[in-house]
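>> received
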Amino acid sequence: MLDVNLLENIKKRRSIFPHEFNGKKIDNATIIELLENSNTAPSHKLTQPWFFKIFSGKSKKKLAD
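>> returned
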């Protein structure tokens, strides 16, 4: 049987759009934890074709420009 909390979180998931961002900086430990957990996402034959880049500060401004 599946965990009830897991099912509730799946049902409540939603998209977040830029106008909903609050502007608060996310601490590095949270980002690392999210990225480590994302590595467990299913992929075709465990190919894990994704890669991540984190932009903040000046690099985020440069990307936006």
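>> The radius of gyration is 16 Å.
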